[in-house]
């Protein structure tokens, strides 16, 4: 089994044997470290997995240092307590001895100790101390001041000071200039955290949901999932009667698009961020620099190329229909498919009153009611309101025939023409089975 020994995840980047090297421990082996931190006995010749994911590996390192520090400090505090008890016993015995002994040498030695204590404290006036009790109190005070000075260094910072430190860190993060990701072209504030999205699926899944077994690539996505799925925290929009997570951004993106700061020059559409605007402007260009290494298709962005590979070549379909057991790559595609079972068409065209199952179909339909035809043919003077109409029109210029009949092999330039041919020429003559 090539899984993590702690959390059983498939993301295994470290080996247990690396623990002593990173901790710089010469006396402990990796089995001693695992037993010391987690109470798990790891045998050297065992057939069980000896791999760790990066998260568990770092947690063991930090816990080892934390537990070692706690034991060391506890031993130090206990030694201070023993010293204090021994010092008190010694002082009491010394005082009794001084009271019973009246020799001059003992008095001189006591005076010398008295002066030494005063020199340490910085006071040389012998006349101010009248008795041995005052001497004992001075020595105790010096000892307590030393212990208090040492404990003050280990005191925790106050909560108010911690808040100020966190605010300064957040302010520094906000003052940092935005950085552009070379993989997808987006401008982000934290490039290091953003780069986890481009790592393989098994590596970037690092944060587990507290209520279920689902993994996420960032804490923000995990928190968003937890609020929506488990807590059901959503706000109601009065304009479209939808329940959304972020009502402010929903209103700005959907209902108040004129207030968005970034505008696309060719079509006038506005966006909430510069990266979304730049990604949209690729639609108006013919450049497709990202080619698939498994087929002849090309795409405008690496995100589209990655989705194409996962959906077409890797056959990744994780969303299952509960009615017909059909699988889909995206959850949105599953939701659209379920409407074919329920016959639900929630989106109405305000111009003609027709209902549609998706917003994209409604958006393409509404182009019919506009007089603006933005998509022009470069070989003739015809213009079209939809890009699909332009693609179908270009077949009359290229004379390309890619679609063949499955019955007779006749080639057609359009798939709907091939489908019409199959129905009229072949399928209507086929009698139903008895």
From TrEMBL:
Entry binding sites for Zn(2+): 4, 7, 53, 56
Domain of life: Eukaryota
Location of the C2H2-type domain: 207-235, 262-289, 290-318, 319-346, 347-374, 375-402, 403-426
MF terms in GO: DNA-binding transcription factor activity, RNA polymerase II-specific; zinc ion binding
Domain ZAD: 2-80
Compartments, as annotated in UniProt: Nucleus
UniProt xrefs under Pfam families: zf-AD, zf-C2H2, zf-C2H2_6
Keywords: Metal-binding, Nucleus, Repeat, Zinc, Zinc-finger
One cellular component term from this protein's GO annotations in UniProt: nucleus
Stored PANTHER family: MYONEURIN (PTHR24394:SF29), ZINC FINGER PROTEIN (PTHR24394)
Protein name: Zinc finger protein 682-like
Designated gene of the protein: LOC113396980
């Amino acid at each position: 089994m090539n899984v993590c020994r702690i959390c059983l995840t498939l993301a295994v980047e470290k080996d247990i044997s690396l623990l002593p090297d990173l901790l710089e421990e010469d006396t402990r082996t990796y089995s001693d470290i695992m037993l010391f931190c987690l109470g798990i006995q790891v045998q050297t010749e065992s057939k069980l997995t000896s791999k760790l994911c990066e998260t568990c590996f770092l947690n063991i390192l930090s816990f080892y240092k934390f537990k070692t520090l706690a034991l060391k400090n506890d031993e130090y505090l206990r030694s201070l307590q023993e010293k204090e008890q021994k010092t008190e016993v010694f002082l009491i015995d010394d005082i009794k001895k001084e009271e019973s002994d009246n020799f001059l040498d003992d008095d001189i030695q006591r005076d010398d100790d008295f002066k030494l204590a005063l020199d340490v404290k910085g006071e040389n006036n012998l006349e101010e101390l009248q008795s041995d009790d005052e001497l004992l109190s001075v020595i105790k005070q010096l000892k307590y001041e030393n212990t208090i000075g040492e404990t003050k260094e280990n005191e925790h910072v106050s909560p108010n000071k911690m808040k100020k430190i966190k605010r300064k860190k957040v302010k520094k993060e906000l003052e940092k200039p935005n950085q552009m990701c070379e993989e997808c072209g987006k401008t982000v504030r934290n490039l290091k955290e953003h780069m986890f999205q481009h790592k393989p699926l098994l590596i970037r899944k690092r944060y587990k949901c507290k209520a279920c077994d689902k993994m996420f690539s960032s804490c923000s996505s995990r928190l968003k999932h937890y609020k929506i799925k488990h807590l059901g925290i959503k706000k109601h929009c009065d304009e479209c009667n939808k329940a959304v997570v972020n009502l402010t951004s929903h209103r700005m993106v959907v209902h108040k698009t004129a207030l968005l700061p970034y505008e696309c020059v060719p079509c006038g559409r506005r966006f909430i961020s510069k990266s979304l605007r730049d990604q949209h402007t690729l639609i108006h260009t013919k450049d497709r620099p990202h080619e698939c290494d498994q087929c002849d298709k090309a795409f405008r962005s690496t995100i589209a190329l990655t989705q194409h590979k996962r959906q077409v070549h890797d056959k990744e379909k994780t969303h299952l229909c509960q009615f017909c057991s059909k699988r889909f790559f995206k959850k949105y595609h599953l939701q659209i498919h379920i409407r074919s079972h329920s016959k639900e068409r929630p989106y109405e065209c305000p111009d003609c009153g027709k209902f549609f199952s998706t917003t994209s179909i409604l958006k393409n339909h509404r182009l019919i009611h506009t007089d603006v035809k933005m998509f022009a043919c470069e070989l003739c003077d015809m213009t079209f309101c939809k890009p699909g109409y332009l693609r179908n029109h270009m077949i009359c210029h290229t004379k390309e025939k890619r679609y063949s009949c499955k019955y007779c092999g006749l080639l057609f330039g359009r798939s709907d023409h091939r489908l019409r041919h199959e129905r009229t020429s072949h399928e209507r003559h086929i009698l139903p089975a008895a």
